[in-house]
Amino acid sequence: MAKKQFKTESKKLLDLMINSIYTHREIFLRELISNASDAIDKIYYKALTDESISFDKDNYYIKVVPDKGNRTLRISDTGIGMTKEELDDNLGVIAKSGSLSFKKEIELMDGHDIIGQFGVGFYSAFMVSDTVTVISRAYGSDDAYKWQSSGADGYTIELCEKDTVGTDIILKIKENTEDEKYDEYLEEYRLKAIIKKYSDFIRYPIKMDMVSKHLKEGSDKEYEGYKEEQIINSMVPIWKRNKNELTKEDYDNFYLEKHYGFDKPIKHIHISVDGAVSYNAILFIPEKMPFDFYTKEYEKGLELYSKGVMIMNKCPDLLPDYFSFVKGLVDSEDLSLNISREILQHDRQLKLIAKNIKNKIKSELENLLKTGRDKYEEFYKAFGRQLKYGIYSEFGSNKETLQDLLMFYSSKEKKMVTLDEYVSRMPQEQKYIYYATGESNERIEKLPQAELVSEKGYEILYFTDDVDEFSIKMMMAYKDKEFRSVSGSDLGIEVEEKKNLSDSEEKDNKELFEHMKSILSGKVKDVRASVRLKNHPVCLSNEGELSIEMEKVLNSMPNSPDIKADKVLEINTDHEVFKSLKEAYEKDKEKLNLYTNLLYNQALLIEGLPIGDPVEFTNNICKIMK
Ligand code: ADP
Description:
By secondary structure, the chain is of the alpha+beta class. It has 3 domains: 224 residues, Histidine kinase-like ATPase, C-terminal domain (Heat Shock Protein 90); 140 residues, Ribosomal Protein S5, domain 2 (2-Layer Sandwich); 105 residues, Four Helix Bundle (Hemerythrin (Met), subunit A) (Up-down Bundle). It contains 20 helices and 22 strands. An 8-stranded mixed sheet has the order 5-4-3-6-2-1-7-8, covered by helices on one side. Helix 9 crosses helix 10, helix 10 crosses helix 15 and helix 18 packs antiparallel against helix 19. The site of adenosine-5'-diphosphate has 19 residues, from helix 2 and helix 3.
């Protein structure tokens, strides 16, 4: 019999399939079962819509039969079958639906990836078998045909016998090699596990003859084992079941079963959409941050199913980075099974789904904030940072989505508050949303810079996360209220004029500050009388956009350029210390030098910044004590 040749791109892929050392060979079964399911779909539909065909639900199934003796694995279906022409067309050329993209993919990337992410349909059978035989009888035909191929050198088609309509795929399983154990694809328990893993939710029964143990007749101790036909898959996935019939426990179990995490999810979201795009989804918000969340190893994404068949383990395009902690899956009727990653990214349906999902997560989180504040705060502790990164990244374009999910510790409420809560209780004359930055709430609590704002009775938000100030700089404003740091130059607070200083006093002070500025040259941009200090003698503030806190964060990054905020040393002219400064300025310049450096270093310490020379600093303190 003359051998027919595969079409060129099919040949390429076949080579790849046969020769690849591939760790996920097991997916061949998923691919074949999914083809079988599609074939049954077609005849099922016919039977449902054509009254001349008798309809019996039990006639539609898939059967998997390993035969260790002959080293074969058979996958049979009662689907629509293929005619001789169809065998030639469908199996002689690579999946038509995907052929264009495959050609590109093969050139673009390493073949292992294609197989792993998407499977490549029928051809994946060659990953585990030397010879593939397809015996098929098409619906409406009395003849059956046998298609056979041992790989890239071509295939044959000949007439054969088959009693019923449908397709048998018979794989001659490869011999074990040193590195690869192909035997496992003949083991019932292993096949069962693979079916459970990938095809559990196929809507037709997948049957296997499994050995089960029974009490021997007439005995209550002795067992005997015999084969019994079992249905391996559960057929109805949880996401297709009615929400009202499911308990929280069902969802929690599913979360564990799927290995989404070891914790109990804080919330599950079950979505069923029928519309421009139809899909079901189950999403989880974990309670705890996965240990690898902030490492390169962490991959965001949702499992993607097409018609109940898993096509991708982690589809990253379904989740924005700021919701990367969400786990779960999406199942859509509108996606093709053999879609490639490249094509998927631009798929209109997928984009729609992703957008829907994003909005749903957002609204569910907002809901949780309203109705389960404690839980939300727990969530925020674990993942709030991710939301703030979300605002900071992409030039603030996610501001609208995320701003109402933010929380900060409040100086007044002594607990976490939202921006909306803050703004809604702002006194009329208050112009800005005030914040203070620092290592911890306790340290911020003591910041001298906050004195004026606090005295005014205004609420201050405490920023303790590196990313906080960067995010709100990106936001610029919330509900038209701009953010202001209590250490910033313009606080927007009217201050009463200092008691009228005489012109000469004013001039003297100015000279003093100029002198101090020259002592601290290169360290501060200015020295001036403070309006914000009430009790403390000294503090640092900053001018311009770059705050001292941001300087700290930026400088802690690897390979950071040496960036400096414009610092201003503020002196409280009502404080006793100021008198000493004036005195020293008049009588003892050496002392002024000492005092100025001491005050500057104090201000650095308060700010949590390192002092340039700690030894000199402590020696200077001793000098004063003497
Ligand atoms: P895809 O399923 O993406 O089209 P495949 O290479 O897996 O790609 O299959 C190619 C074609 O062969 C299918 O589209 C289908 O028409 C046909 N086919 C494969 N398996 C079967 C089967 N078990 N029964 C009927 N037709 C099948």
